[in-house]
Amino acid sequence: MAADSTPSDHSDCPSSTGDGLLPAELHAWMLMLAATGAVEQELRSVVKERLDVSHDEFLILCLLAGHPGEALRMTRIAELLGRPKTRLTYQIACLQHAGLVTRQSVCGDKRGVEVALTEKARALLKDASATLATTVKEGLARFMGPAQCEAMRALMPEA
Which domain of life is it from (predicted)? Predict the structure, then answer.
């Protein structure tokens, strides 16, 4: 490797210029996925260490935390996370076993099930939030270079 080249320098790579076979929007999306995937990978280990849950379970906790004071139906959680309902049932069971969520039948709907955070989960998320936020912020700073930032602006000019 040349002395002036670093592993993260992909400026000579044809796929990083956006002038290949992909339309600009798809190329931008792929750059963003790569950067967020790298951050997500770093976050997985921090989530496991700090919260002792899987990354998918963490996403459920975050979704519920984004709706404070209210329960969400499992079908809605599956929709919002793009997860199969059967897989979600297993993850919710794991979270319930850990004392992080409660689930109950929806009044008037025998098949409907609502899920809510417990106080234990709220406290755990509150204690870990600074570390998790720092992991995301530092990861984005490392993996979101000029190409990714430009791609994001092109996809979402109002952002």
Answer: Bacteria
Phi-psi region of 124 (alpha: psi -120 to 50; beta: other; left: phi over 0): alpha
Determine the Cα angle at 57 with ends 92 and 133, to 5°.
145
pLDDT in tens, 80-120: 999 888 889 999 999 999 999 999 988 777 778 999 999 99
Q: What pLDDT does 6 receive?
A: 38
Quickly list H helices, 23-155. Answer: 24-51, 55-65, 74-81, 85-97, 119-143, 146-155
Angstrom distances, CA of residue 146 to CA of 37, 39, 153: 17, 16, 11
Walk me through the domains of the chain, giving residue ranges and CATH numbers: 23-151 (1.10.10.10)
> Which strands, in side-by-side order, build the sheet including 101-106?
72-73, 109-117, 101-106
Burial of 68 (C-beta count, 10 Å sphere; 0-12/13-18/19+): exposed
Q: What percentage of the chain carries pLDDT values higher than 70?
A: 87
